[in-house]
Design goal:
Layout lengths: L9 H16 L19 H8 L11 H9 L5 H7 L1 E5 L18 H11 L7 E5 L2 E4 L4 E3 L11 E5 L5 E4 L3 E2 L4 E4 L2 E5 L8 E4 L2 E2 L1 E2 L1 E2 L18 H4 L9 E6 L5 E9 L5 E8 L6 E9 L10 E5 L4 E4 L12 E4 L5 E4 L7 E7 L2 E3 L11 E2 L6 E2 L5 E12 L2 E3 L6 E8 L2 E3 L2 E3 L6 E4 L31 E7 L2 E3 L9 E6 L2 E6 L2 E3 L4 E5 L4 E2 L2 E3 L2 E3 L11 E3 L13 H7 L4 E3 L1 E4 L2 E3 L4 E5 L6 E4 L2 E3 L2 E5 L4 E4 L2 E3 L3 E4 L8 E3 L2 E3 L4 E4 L3 H4 L2 E3 L2 E3 L14 H8 L6 E2 L67 E3 L2 E5 L3 H6 L8 E5 L5 H4 L7 E5 L2 E2 L3 H9 L6 E8 L2 E8 L3 E6 L5 E3 L4 E3 L13 E4 ...
Parallel strand pairs: 1-2, 2-5, 3-6, 4-21, 5-22, 6-23, 12-18, 21-26, 22-26, 23-27, 26-28, 26-29, 27-30, 28-31, 28-32, 29-32, 30-33, 31-34, 32-35, 33-36, 34-37, 35-39, 36-40, 37-41, 38-42, 39-43, 40-44, 41-45, 43-46, 44-47, 45-48, 46-49, 47-50, 48-51, 49-52, 50-53, 51-54, 52-55, 53-56, 56-57
Antiparallel strand pairs: 7-20, 8-9, 9-19, 10-11, 10-20, 13-17, 14-15, 14-17, 15-16, 18-19, 24-25, 58-59, 59-60, 60-61, 61-62, 61-63, 63-64, 65-76, 66-69, 67-68, 68-75, 69-74, 70-73, 70-76, 71-72, 71-74
Length: about 1000
């Protein structure tokens, strides 16, 4: 019998007894593991459930009565254990010279650590530190090492006393004397040279003086494009104090900067600090500035003058400063558990029932380290930080508005557990589990890509990575307050991490992010997720990257990539039994190269799945409610499969640079239903039969009502029970009922919002309309789906939708799925940014294009051809006036060139077009309801052109400039009445050029 602490309650003892059983069975034949795809495991389902701390559908835990009966039989060894156990009592009212008993508690955690070490000198003795109610301020991080470690059977426990809520804080408490500075602003002397950037008054986090003022309903808590405009910077007496936070220019997480002063041209001088690794470009709109005295202009805001030692504060509503408690966030970390190495870890320590709060933000005072080739960079710190650790448990605790990560596991970690905690308001991620860079072979980052395969040894290079970690039953919400490249649970360079039954909602980016394929074997199961990706773009609530060692090797064959894809991702990662609500395209985003995933038994609300550039992914037995399966940039023969799912949408599949015949994705036994409406498979068929005939896929699938019990989801968008009726056609195609009612943290009463069904069918836009260019077809980056496929954001260039091999575009070096980012050095946004430059370029001119291909810049030169060119009404034409309306085919554009027109019925509305050439003809439709226009060339006299005709005639030439001198010209036209002015196309003549 092991040395069980006598204070164990029945539940604790149940766990402990099972743990002993596991240890005794290690020499027995291994049982089936939790993950049937795991190659081997030294712990089975009993141990996994024990780590989760509660029963699951896979395991029956002993009942309390059974444990009590078992304990009663242990009459011989138990009394001796009572004598050897040690409990150390701590209270804020205690004294470090006291005995440490319940009647005479000590005062500080550092003294408690010293007493634990003394007690551990008694071999095998369990030790518990009991913390009474109250606040425990730390002046330095409490660091626990091997000397502070327990044993498997008797961990050292730091836990709350029964009914107590001890709060561990990382800064001093103050009761300063306040006086009025100016208006509503109060000032107090708190001391010079302090280092804090969070202030808590009456236990509530206050607002560092900022512009624009705090608005919790907006990105960044409020944003403004003029946050650091020279006119605003000029108002600041000391701009070097400013801290700038914003989104990445492509909205891929955050970008933040420390100001260093004012440049000679009046702009703010800044140094980039992070927090992503995909470049330092700051978004033009989503930006804000803080820590500037002149911006202290709103209730709840504060500013600290470090040199003068003065704290300025505009009291929030309801704050009485004469009685208020002021606390400062000074420490980056509260507790650090750190062993010497992977072979000598700190181990067997438990934290239970504690609250962690009041820490310094790590955004501006720490170094960000890039993680593999994902978009992410991290600070290796946390309010509770673990490094070289084993069997560390953080349970039933609260992380309240800590400045950085709540929990960070760094490097080697084994069998650690984070369970039943509440993490809210964290400045960065909730739980981050990140191995060392040296643990991965051929590790690349965006600043250091390895382009040759020199190491084909499978698996890790060192032991410096987490394995067999459990994150279960936690509530994680409103995190990423400062770092937008953050996640509820972040996993990278780790193996067999179980993330189960957590409730994660209202986060700026991912709920769960898997930063790379190293080393796989994860289980993401039973989680309840909603309102993720609230402040950033192009991401999924469950997001994965697969830019492992095979992905950067551009000249590899797809067969080589497929073989290499398992070098790092050793075992499949399973994503199952989750409920995910997401109001964008994909709820499960398996991005760039993510390989060896099983996505099954999930309830996907408003979002679908995305498979891009990877191998061996399956999506089976999922319910896609108003979501699609996206396939982006597929490799050949990739081993993917989409089977036995239920799709509730009119567009179940979306393909971007992904031909099923090429990728050989298996589609079958799915049920499609659009509430009786059409179901299409563009571009491979407008119906299931067309898709089947075109590709020979989904032969065993059907378009039919899946027959949910209760109301249909169209009748009840807030539907909770998605059980299928016994007569459902999905069940006969292999679908297995998904258990309802067990998503997320046990006992959680919250849940996701209702479904958001489209109010009307999707329509084309000006940017989605393909236009001809050099024999190719171009569009704008008009959707998140398209932008994601090329690794950009909407409006960041011109997309080459198709480039035939015989085209002039192909001869110039352009390829399908290229994005033209720059034209002779000018950055492009939407289509007109290209056409306005292209139309003014003389024939024979050399144009330098910067093209984004496979997420890498490529420079090429294109010669502007001469001769005739027909351009559309969307190709660089400027429209002035309020009556203009773009009409695609379904709204009146059919029959016109490219089946679209621009139309106005407002007198005085006008258009203009600048072009380089020797002549222009205007092509449009005429009809009895059309106006006369006044048209001029190069500012010359206006000519009247009547667009009326007895009947509608499409694509009619209505105006010809005649021969012009070769050069740049401008045509302008205005409407003379409230009848229709329709603009369709123009034919431009240019010299042949050279």
């Amino acid at each position: 019998m092991r040395n069980w602490p006598p204070e164990l309650n029945t539940s604790d003892l149940c766990i402990a007894l099972q743990w002993e059983t596991i240890q005794n069975r290690r020499s027995e034949p291994r049982k089936p593991s939790v993950n049937p795809h795991r190659k081997s495991d030294d712990y089975g389902p009993l141990e996994a459930a024990m780590a989760r701390g509660r029963p699951t559908h896979r395991l029956f835990l002993a009942t309390s009565a059974a444990v009590a009966a078992l304990v009663a039989t242990l009459s011989s060894p138990w009394p001796s254990l009572a004598a050897s156990a040690t409990t150390i009592y701590v209270a804020p009212t205690g004294s470090d010279t006291a005995s440490g008993t319940a009647e005479a508690p000590i005062k500080t955690l550092t003294e408690a650590q010293s007493r634990v070490r003394k007690a551990l000198n008694t071999e095998g003795a369990p030790v518990t530190v009991r913390l009474a109610d109250g606040t425990y301020p730390l002046t330095e991080t409490l660091t626990l090492t091997e000397e502070d470690s327990g044993t498997k059977g008797a961990p050292v426990r730091w836990r709350a006393a029964p009914g107590a809520k001890p709060v561990i804080v990382g800064g001093r408490s103050l009761s300063p004397s306040w006086s009025t500075y100016s208006g509503q602003i109060q000032v107090a002397t708190v001391g010079e040279g302090l280092d804090f950037d969070q202030v808590f008054i009456d236990n509530k986090r206050q607002i560092l003086a900022r512009y624009p003022n705090y608005d919790p309903g907006k990105k960044l808590g409020g944003y403004a494009s003029d946050a650091i405009a020279p006119s605003r910077v000029a108002r600041w007496a000391n701009p070097s104090t400013a801290l700038v936070r914003g989104l990445h220019q492509s909205e891929w997480g955050g970008n933040s900067y420390r100001a260093t002063g004012r440049n000679s041209n009046g702009t703010l001088a800044m140094t980039w600090v992070g927090d992503n690794q995909r470049g330092s470009g700051l978004h033009g709109t989503y930006r804000m500035v803080e820590n500037v005295f002149e911006e202290l202009d709103s209730p709840g805001e504060w500013y600290y003058d470090k040199a003068a030692g003065k704290l300025y504060y505009w009291p929030a509503v309801g704050v009485d400063l004469s009685n208020a408690t002021v606390r400062l966030g000074e420490l980056d970390e509260l507790i650090r558990v750190q062993g010497t190495s992977s072979s000598s870890p700190a181990h067997d320590i438990t934290f239970n029932g504690l609250t962690f709060s009041d820490t310094h933000r790590t955004l501006f005072n720490s170094t960000f380290e890039p993680i593999s080739l994902s978009d992410w960079a991290i600070v290796r710190k946390g309010a509770v930080a673990l490094k070289n650790s084993s069997r560390i448990s953080i349970k039933s605790s609260t992380f309240d508005h800590v400045g950085g990560n709540a929990v960070f596991m760094d490097g080697y970690a084994d069998h650690n557990v984070v369970s039943d905690n509440v993490i809210t308001g964290a400045g960065a991620s909730g739980v981050a589990i990140v191995g060392s860079e040296r643990s991965a072979r051929q590790a690349s980052t965006w600043g250091h890509e390895i382009r040759t395969m020199s190491d084909t040894t499978p698996g890790p290079a060192t032991e410096d990575y987490p394995r067999r970690i459990t994150v279960a039953d936690n509530l994680i919400t409103n995190i990423g307050e400062y770092e937008k490249q953050s996640a509820g649970v972040q996993i990278a360079r780790a193996f067999r991490v179980t993330v189960s039954h957590n409730t994660i909602h209202d986060v700026p980016r991912a709920a769960i992010n898997i930063g790379d394929g190293t080393f796989g074997g994860h289980e993401i199961t039973g989680n309840d997720i909603w309102n993720a990706v609230r402040e950033t773009g192009d991401h999924g609530p469950i997001n994965a990257w697969g830019r492992d060692r095979f992905w950067p090797i551009r000249d590899a064959t797809d067969a080589q990539r497929k073989a290499w894809s398992k070098l790092d991702h050793l075992e499949p990662t399973i994503i199952e039994y989750n409920r995910i609500w997401h109001d964008h395209d994909w709820a499960v985003d398996l991005d760039d190269g993510s390989s060896n995933y099983i996505v099954q038994n999930n309830l996907l609300l408003n979002g679908g799945t995305k498979f891009r550039e990877g191998f061996n992914r399956t999506a089976t037995n999922n319910i896609y409610a108003n979501g699609s399966a996206h396939f982006h940039v597929s490799y050949a023969d990739n081993g993917d499969a989409v089977t036995s799912n239920v799709f509730l949408t009119g567009t179940p599949y979306q393909f971007i640079k992904a031909d099923p015949a090429f990728s050989k994705i298996r589609h079958d036994k799915n049920v499609f239903w659009n509430n009786g409406g059409p179901v299409g498979f563009s571009p491979y068929g407008s119906s299931l039969s067309g898709w089947q005939a075109s590709k020979g896929l989904d032969i065993g699938s059907t378009v039919a009502d899946p027959k949910f019990t209760g109301k249909s989801p169209w009748q009840d968008p807030a539907k909770q029970d998605w059980t299928l009726d016994a007569t459902s056609p999905a069940l006969s195609r292999g679908f297995v009922q998904i258990p309802m009612g067990s998503f997320g943290r046990p006992g959680s009463s919250d849940g996701p919002p209702p479904l958001i069904w489209p109010s009307k069918p999707q329509t084309a836009t000006r940017e989605s309309l393909p236009e001809p260019l050099l024999g190719a077809q171009i569009t704008g980056l008009y959707s998140d789906t398209l932008a994601s496929s090329v690794g950009l954001s909407q409006g960041q260039g011109i997309y080459l939708e198709s480039v035939p091999d015989s085209s002039a575009a192909a001869a110039a070096g352009l390829r399908s799925a290229d994005v033209i980012r720059k034209f002779n050095g000018t950055e492009l946004t939407w289509k007109n940014s290209f056409w306005t430059l292209w139309n003014k370029t003389p024939a024979g001119s050399k144009v330098q294009l910067e093209v984004y291909r496979n997420q890498q810049p490529v420079t090429m030169t294109v010669t502007r051809p001469g001769g005739g060119e027909k351009i559309n009404n969307t190709s660089g034409v400027t429209y002035t006036g309020n009556g203009w309306d773009w009409k695609e085919a379904k709204r009146g554009g059919a029959g016109s060139y490219l089946n679209d027109v621009d139309a106005s019925t407002t007198s005085g509305d006008s258009f203009s077009l600048i072009f380089h050439g020797t002549g222009l003809k205007m092509i449009t439709q005429t009809n009895s309801d059309e106006t006369a226009i006044m048209i001029s060339v190069d500012g010359g006299p206006e000519q009247r052109v009547d667009l009326a005709s007895p009947n509608r005639v499409y694509q009619t030439q209505v105006f010809d400039t005649g021969t012009l001198t070769a050069g740049e010209h401008t045509i302008k036209a205005r409407s003379t009445s409230n009848a229709y002015l329709i603009v369709d196309a123009f034919e431009i003549t240019r010299p042949s050029g050279s």
